[in-house]
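>> received
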Amino acid sequence: IQNTIIYSDGALNGTVILNHSGNGFGAAIGTNHSGGNKVTINANEISINSAGAFGLYATNPVDKINLTANKISINGGTSVYSATGQVNVKAKDSLIIESTDKCILAAGNGEINVGSVDDDNKADIVINGNVEYLTTGIINVELETEQSQLNGVVKHYSEGETTYTGGTVNLTLNNGASWNVTGDSVITNISAENGN
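>> returned
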């Protein structure tokens, strides 16, 4: 899907299911290298399954992918990836991001924002897998309920023997949210208020 807006008068109605069997190539939702692409999906429920490939992929500095729903699930090889664009994933009730490789990856000037739709009703957010970053990539993850958790490591992206540095990860753990660290981690900022 590219250059697309799917919504119903701003209300979170309907269900969007995307299954991509790219065998390691392409993305269920992606922008191309020409720039200026925008994909916005507002729905009751969004389910993205991208077998071994990207779930969400923004590739240009002016590209934006915005997902807003009551319930969101994303499962891919690399579930959420921004090479240089911006990806916003916001849920009202629940959000699950799982991966066979990396859950979230920000590179270049990529920015990824994961959290709740509004400040009054926080979503239960579960991330099962690693969060990786490099160069000037920025990742903001807000876990703000007792059921919210990150199960994995936060680290600089590596390829073979090379580990890339730079980038920023801002992790918020509030109201009993937890981070179950599964290995060595390198994180820029952690904000915790009654978090674990």
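>> Residues 1-5 have pLDDT under 50 and may be disordered.
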